[in-house]
Write a structure and sequence with these properties.
- By secondary structure, the protein is of the alpha+beta class.
- Helices cover 41% and strands 25% of the residues.
- The protein contains 24 helices and 36 strands.
- The strands form 9 sheets. Strands 1, 2, 5, 6, 7, 8, 9, 10 and 11 form a 9-stranded mixed β-sheet that branches. The chain has a 6-stranded antiparallel β-barrel with strand order 15-18-22-21-20-24.
- β10 (197-210) and β11 (216-229) form a beta hairpin.
- The protein binds serine.
- The site of serine (SER) has 10 residues, from β10 and β11.
Length: 882
Amino acid sequence: MKVSEIRQSFLEFYANANHTIVASSTLVPAGDPTLLFTNAGMVQFKDCFLGTDPRSYVRATTCQKCLRISGKHNDLENVGRTPRHHTFFEMLGNFSFGDYFKKDAIIFAWKFLTETLKLDKERLWITIYESDDEAGKLWSESTDVLPGRILKYGKEDNFWAMGETGPCGPCSEIHYYLGTDLKTQSEDDFRKADGRYIEIWNLVFMQYNRSANGELVALPKPAVDTGMGLERIAAVKQGVRSNYDTDEFRRLISCTEALCGKHYDGKNYERAHNSHYDIDCAFRVIADHARAIAFLIADGVRPGADGRGYVLRRLVRRACRHGRILGFKESFLFKVTTEVVATYGGVYPELQAAQTQIDRLVKAEEEKFSITLDQGLVLLDQAIQDTKQAGAKVVTGKTAFQLHDTYGFPLDLTEDILRNHGLTVDGVEFSREMEVQRERSRAARASETQLVIQRSVKELPTKFVGYEFLEYESEISGLFDVNGEVKNAKPGSEVVIVTRETPFYAESGGQVGDTGFLSTDGGAALDVIDTQKTAAGTIVHICRVVEGEVQAGEKTHLTVDGERRRSIAIHHSSTHLLHLALRDVLGVHATQAGSRVSEQALRFDFRHDQPLREAELLEIENLVNHWMRENYAVTTEVLSLEQAKKSGAMALFGEKYGEQVRVVQIGPRSRELCGGTHAKASGFLGSFYLLNENSISAGVRRIEAVAAEEAYKHSKRKQNLIRNLELALKSPEKELEDRIRKLSARLRDLERDAERQGQRSRSELGDKLADRAQNSPHGGKYIISKVEAIGGKELRELSDKLRTKIQSGCVVLGSVVDGQVLLLTAVTDDLTDRLHAGKLTEELVKIVGGRGGGRADLAQAGGGSPEKLDSALKRAEEILGR
Ligand code: SER
């Protein structure tokens, strides 16, 4: 059976059992921010399991496009190295939403495998979740699975979850024996997971939803989600050793063979002493990545510097690097992706529709990377030599960062190459470098945008309509890039746009600028990254063109990100209430010195010259919360500056105001001059938490606070923390403090006792060992002993004591701590010209898998093979006793 026939027969089998055939969803999950990519067939049905997305059917079957390259399910590292790992793959599945459950799921799967595909029962094995006796019974009573073939496994293997949150439940897997001799199958071998038994199908009995705080909540109705990798089942059915030997993969590999003129041997999965391994591996990586790349582009992903776009870019770059192994000197990958379209286009028409984009984007990405790839490889090669020469196993994070930053090597690409040399990267250092770089570019970006605004924007009239509207139709009256005014701009470019009217609020008065979208009549789509104001007051939208070409003068539809704006407005209104509370509690001197209001929090600087006391903070927080609950209306009016001041509105010291000013009033007492956007009533602000208070300069203090949803999230985090503590310490909330106090007192006592006890027993041990000292042919006495798990400091104490006791001679001690061997050798001063502690240690520590030596009188070193400690001590006996 060809792959396409297997795909078809699966869907037909379930359609005959009253399942609706549902098309695969896109690789980019719709409306699910918890997942970067669709990683299983059930993803598009997530809400059906949760009971919030009722459909016209209760049974479904799909062949789903999946990508496992990030998050909980990530197979990237193994791709190419094994016969069965992929980034992109197709998953066959059947689903029941509160209709049938375990029994039918088991019977269907068994029938499909043994009757439709006619797999040999003698080769099939079943695993179930350890406490799922029901599934065990169903397998043995409702199918003719062979006796002794149902095995129990724990959570690691037989409890499936989509991600950190979402639907999950116990599962039952079907495995297939690939070996030649059916008689030699055994449970022991199966449990050793030696590669001859492979999992082919996973039946998940969905029973729970894991919420954000880790809790398992029962689903409204138990459901079924099964998943069988099409590539695997095809390999089994076609009797080939590897998924890469199935017909569709072979087509892609042959295409690459023809392009590079090298031969894919297909037998090489072990690297050791195998000159063809890298070549085979490269063929597989290219075939795998080409599929992922083509499908991603067809589903709308574009190469980029972060998120999904960066995953795509990484795939292209990894494929290019493997192309070098096959001898490609220039772009080739777009030819392989064309073959992907030809192979899969019939089943997935979106590939055909995107053929031109796939071609163009892949080629452009390849060409861009080609320029730096070879130089980067030279640098990396040097780093590998240096690291090996220094006897180290870890390449510095700085090198990895330089490769990333200057040569465009994604970290996983560097790691992939290093793995072949048994090396790794210092990941901590790498992240640190990345963070520093991010900071730098944030700062650079900010000033660059400012520059663009200052330099190139012509002053144009704009009208702000964002107090009433979040969406508006207007016309592009100015289009600018770094070089000045332009007529049009292409996808990918950053531009500054001015429109006649705009609902976007430009950053001012501490309130951050709005973000959102623009679309034009000509079909262009733009992200608005920020909104700013020029010195003369022109509102400018800082945009990135996402799609289409934007033209000056075009009609445009402007949409503010409403959720974000709402949260900003809430924090702004909260700031006014906070201002009033500060003045009420601290005195009228506590006036505003600055503020920053965003969707996440508010920051308020005010004049006051000492830290706030607990009681003051509490009172301020209480007052603001109280006014929120009063649900005061928020009203605005436009007055002359004079009238406004006369009416008691607070103006900011040192701020320039125009003729006409806007006054924002909240309830009876809060009245401020303010151009910002606000909630309609104080009830919308929900609740209010002070996060912290500190000094920022002489006489000026800063408060940070959150309101509404952010306040809720804040308190939820604290609540979770308490719950986790309750669980960890096994005591209810009201006893927690007491419990922690008692525990730490007890810990202190125990540590003191242990220390005393340790000293006592080391002293006794010292006496005992000294009594057993033997005469040494090298002069003096010697002691060789394995001692209880004690650390380096204690070992030294013990050896000092022994040296004093024997007066002249040599001491060798070995101990195992946390799986690491510690060896210590000490020689009394009178013998160091005959016996060198450092050299002796050097020889002994080799045996336990370590390296190092030391001084002539004292040396200490460690190794990673505790099971070899006895041999090392035996060797010491040979050296010292003869
Ligand atoms: N969701 C399960 C898996 O991915 C079964 O489809 O293995």
